[in-house]
Hints:
Layout: H1 5-8, E1 13-21, E2 25-31, E3 38-39, E4 41-44, H2 51-63, E5 71-80, E6 95-105, E7 118-125, H3 126-132, H4 136-154, E8 158-163, H5 174-182, E9 186-190, H6 199-211, E10 217-223, H7 225-236, E11 242-248, H8 256-262, H9 267-281, E12 293-298, H10 321-324, E13 331-335, H11 346-358
Parallel strand pairs: 1-6, 8-9, 8-10, 10-11, 11-12, 12-13
Antiparallel strand pairs: 1-4, 2-3, 2-7, 5-6
Amino acid sequence: MGEQKPAEFRRPESVLVVVHTRSLECLVLERVEPAGFWQSVTGTLGWNETAAAAAAREVREETGLDPTGLCDSGQSHTFPILPAWRHRFAPDVQENLEHVWYLEIPDRVAVTLNPAEHSAHEWLPLEQAIARVSSWTNREALERLRRSAPAHSEEFGEAVVVVHALWMPGHETALLRRRLARAGFRPSLFRFRTVSDGLDANAERLARFVERVPGDRVHFVGHSLGGAVAAYTVQTRRPARAGRVVCLGSPLRGTRSGQRLARFRWGAWLTGRSIGDLLARGGLRPWSGTADLGVIAGDLPLGLGLLLGALPKPNDGVVTVEETRLEGAADHLVLPLSHTALIFSRRVAAETAHFLRHGRFERIR
C-alpha cells in the first residue's frame, strides 16, 4: 500500500496563497463544492513538488495571474482534514500541513477562474476578506497581512530581488527572504543558470525578471556569485526602478578559489561561465551610478575554498575579504561569519534591511 500511496491518494500538504493589491484589496474565491466556501488560492502539493512550485502553479491554474513576486511567509499550519475530503487521503492521514504565501500585484485585475474548482470571485477590502473566508488558517493569513501593513507602508511599493549563489537552487535563501519580509520588504527569488550561462546572459534574464516585479523601487540582495550577477546587472543594464544593492560574500573583484578550481580537469566546467567571465574581466569595474552598493563580507575561514589551498586572510572559507571590496561602494561591513553562514545570519538580514532603507549599515552590536 505504501508504494501505491502517491498514485492513489493526495499528499497531505498544501499551499495557501493570499493574492492582494498594494492597497490591500484581497482576492477571494468561492468553491464549487462545498457551495458557499470562500477562500484564497489553495492547492495540494504533488508528491514530488516543492511548495514554491505548487504556489506558482495554483496561482496560474486558479486565477490565470502571473505568479512573479510570490513571497514565502515562512508560516505554516496543521489542521484536521474535513470529513468531506478525508477520502482523498490515505486512511491513516488525519491532518494537512498548509504553507502560507503572499502575492502582491499593483491593482485589481481580471481573473480567469477554473470552473471545475471555483464558481465566483471577489476583490474585497482586507477586513471584509477576513470576514468572508471560511477557514481559520485563511483568516489568520489575512490578519497577518493586516499586522504587517504598517511595516510595508514605511517603504511602500519597494520590493527586493534575492539572487542565489553558485550551484545553489535558491531554497537556501528562504530564511533570509522571510526576515526581509518581516522587515517590510517584498522579496522575490530570481533563479538563474549558475554554470551554463555567462554574466551577460544572466544579467539580461535578471533585467527582464525585474520588469515583472511590482513596486516603485526594486532592490537587490545577492549571495556570493548572485551578488556579482546583481551588481553587474545594475551596472550594465541599469533597470529603471533599481534601488540599492547588497552583496553578501560576493567575489566582486574576482575569486582566487575559482581560479584554482579552474586549473583542474573539469574545473572550468564546475565553476561555470559566469565565474569564467568574472575572472576574464578581472572582476567588476568600480561602482558608479545612482544606486547605492553595500557589501557584507565574512572573516570566519570555514568553507570548501580551503580544500583548494590556503586563502589570503581574512577570508570566509571561499572568498577573501579583499575580493569583496569594490571601489565606489557606499559601505562595506566585515562580520565573523563563514561564507555559507552569511545567508542564515539574523544580523546579516537586519544589516541588509537597514542598508536597503538608509544606504548604510547600522553596525549592530
